User: Fold this.
Amino acid sequence: MADKVNAGASDFVRIKSGIPGLDQMMEGGFPFPSTILVAGSAGTGKTTFALQFLMQGARDGEQGLYFTTLSEPTQWMMRFASRLEFINKDFLGKEVKYVELGNYLRDEKDPRKLIDFMEEHITEVMPQRIVVDPITVIEELIGGNYRTFLYELATRLKNWQAVSVLTGEVLPDQPYPVQVSYITDTVILLSYGLSPEGGRRKYLEILKMRGTGHTTGRHLFDVSRNGVSVQAGLR
Amino acid sequence: MPNVQAVVSKLRQSLPLIRDARKVAVIAPPTLMNHVSLYLVCAPIHPDAGKVLYLSVDRPNRSLARLFDRHCNGGPQVLFGNPEMDEPRSGEVACITGLFAPKLMVDALSNLSGSPESRASMVVGNLSALGFYNSNDRIKEFLRRIDEKLKEQAITKAVLVTDRTSGYILSLAREFSEAELDLSG
Assistant:
């Protein structure tokens, strides 16, 4: 009976993540629209992941918007990023637009004003892909207002027709940024582990993904000048 | 997936095909629903319209109002089915449960158009999204209600924006419309 009544139900639209090996782990891509947390400790490849996601969108004719909260100048980060093979510099400033939140955050601690500022850019650009990298820095800058900020940000992001990737630093005393995980539809964890020989390996794990069947457990991944790639099935 | 510029360009060139039709289906790429809806609300396809009634289905008015303010300068006045967003006369709208009772949304929106003499057309921003929240019967009833409003001349034109994610809803939209514009290819 239920099948008949809902036979016309719409399917999720999915967009490619841009990460080789990842889409096969989650029914073909990220649900559009949705919010994704990519969490990991320093050096695991979060920013590279986010840039690949935006570049994939640009190649697919989509508009991207990159909010960076980094305390270092944007051009400094881009000097390193430009060495990555998948970066097409022609997309920068056009299909992938860049907004620095760092300077704004130094003067403005009101979470609603910060979100209004972000939303002005979203309204202007009308992106299909949004990145906030890293979102967890905002906690240090706005302090006690962080929870309000996250709640408000999640509500607003979900109103836009976009897939939003939020990157989050994992601190030594937590498995992943728990507060951010509550507001997102998907949580992807990038972590280090030891090989049987004692060397360091990197692992990717999909911890949560609403409305999508996904592979579980930790899967080996690599970060190189070609970007992040997952070896699904290798653990 | 077609890019924004290509879709808007095709839409602009195709406007004469849908300008005179009263019932229009526009099939959009699913990632560009915002762009296509926004363009259709602002485009000169509404008959002498001072007003366009916009039904977003599952998007809050606040975000959309910002979009229209930013991108639709000089376009028609846009009314939403939310009393807080509109002029005082929208006090006529007693209850809007939109998402799960879309036919009430049609009534509420057509009431917003004011007097029967006023000319207002309607754009449904994302018909296919109704499939997430409503049974097939409800969606059929929603379209029947729009048809009724057209016959009563409570609205003068209805533009349905949809995508290909639900074959059933797409077929309903096609049955409903006199003119079709496919931007999804």
In short: The helical segments of chain B are 4-19, 33-42, 61-71, 102-112, 136-151, 167-176. The longest strand of chain B covers residues 157-162. Chain B touches chain A at residues 1-4, 6, 30-35, 38, 59-60, 62-63, 66-67, 70-71, 128-129, 131-132, 135-137, 139, 163, 165-169, 172 (CB under 8 Å).
